[in-house]
Amino acid sequence: MNVLNAIILGIVEGITEFLPISSTGHLILASQILRIPTTEFLKSFEISIQLGAILAVVVLYWKTLFLDIHVIKKVVVAFIPTMALGFVFYKIIKYFFLGNGQLVLWSLFLGGVFLIIFELLYCEKQETIEDLSVISYKKSFFIGVFQSLAMIPGVSRSAATIIGGLSLGMKRKTIVEFSFLLAVPTMIAATALDLFKSAGAFSLAQFHLLAVGFVTSFVVAMVGIKFLLNFIRHHTFVTFGIYRILVAIIFWLFLNQR
Predict the structure, then answer these.
(1) End-to-end Cα separation, the chain, in angstroms
(2) Closest alpha carbon to 214 in 15, 25, 22, 10
(3) Element (H, E) at 238
(4) Of 1, 12, 62, 3, whose CA–CA distance to 217 is shortest?
(5) With contact defined as beta carbons under 8 Å apart, do 240 and 19 qualify?
(6) Can you tell me the mean pLDDT for 29-53?
(7) Are the C-beta atoms of 13 and 219 separated by less than 8 Å?
(8) Lowest-confidence range among 7-11, 60-64, 93-97, 99-103?
(9) Whole-number mean pLDDT of the chain?
(10) Distance of CA 107 to CAs 18, 36, 101, Å?
(11) Model confidence over 94-119: pLDDT tens digits?
(12) Are 1 and 83 in contact (CB under 8 A)?
């Protein structure tokens, strides 16, 4: 991997992290297009640069994250399922799931189909939850359970949490913002765990590449967050479902020709 690769992957991460299309899946596919060897460093890079995108949430929502104790407690409860399952299945996720292009494509395709069907059947109720602070602990926990499905590359953490929140009776904007906030402890924990286990084997040049990807993803994610908040005011996620299906089909054709 070189600096240009790190910048490209940082851009991909910043664009896709908060959209329901799977940033991890796109990073894996982008790495294949760039012909970057699937090494332990690449897998750690794909995990770590997501923290750059998450920093954008901290900058934009710092008051809620640090001052609203009610929301903080709900985010912590929602984080518990992913924390527990991620710790237990860390080795399976990193050594068998990450880098698995076929798993990504199937997840993108089936997730796209599910997203379209869900949106066609979904009807928002009048008593939906609009305020982050009034989300119950029970619903927070179940949103976390939905998020844990995204440990499978291609599922999309954003899609899983948003669909979970909508199913539990939350306003579209409310669950999108809760998904932003929940990403903070989730990605901090994932990155910290991976670096704790792997960082000792990285060279100084590799840490430089991590820094480049981190900064790039942060800058691009600032735009990505604002785009999604504006998008959901007037649109459903059907467009993203169609996009997921098309990406999967295009990559299947691409991989079959290689």
Answers:
(1) 21
(2) 10
(3) helix 238-257
(4) 12
(5) yes
(6) 85
(7) no
(8) 93-97
(9) 86
(10) 17, 22, 10
(11) 767 776 778 888 899 999 999 999 99
(12) no
User: Which pair of tokens denotes residue 168?
Assistant: 């539990």
Question: Which secondary-structure segment (H or E) carries 193?
Answer: helix 172-198
Count, residues in the chain: 258
To the nearest 10°, report the CA torsion of 74, 76, 80, 86. Answer: 130
Quote the tokens at residue 203: 């060279």
What is the amino acid identity at position 91? Answer: K
Round to whole Å and give the CA distance between 189 and 84.
11
SS (H, E, C) 120-183: HHCCCCCCCECCHHHCCHHHHHHHHHHHHHHHCCCCCHHHHHHHHHHHCCECHHHHHHHHHHHH
Q: How far is residue 62's CA from residue 66's CA, in Å, rounded to a whole number? A: 6
Amino acid in position 13: E
Residue 185: pLDDT above 80?
Answer: yes
- Asked if residue 88 lies in contact with residue 253, where contact means CB atoms within 8 angstroms, the answer is no
Count of other CB atoms within 10 angstroms of residue 102: 11
CA distances from 33 to 26, 37, 193, 258 (A): 10, 11, 28, 11
Q: What is the pLDDT of residues 199-254, one digit of tens each?
A: 667 778 888 998 999 999 999 999 989 898 888 888 889 999 999 999 999 888 87
- pLDDT per residue over 69-86, tens digit each? 988 999 999 999 988 887
Is 256 a residue whose pLDDT tops 70?
Answer: no
DSSP H helical ranges for 17-122: 23-33, 40-48, 50-60, 62-67, 69-88, 90-92, 101-121
CB-CB contact of 112 with 242 (8 Å):
yes
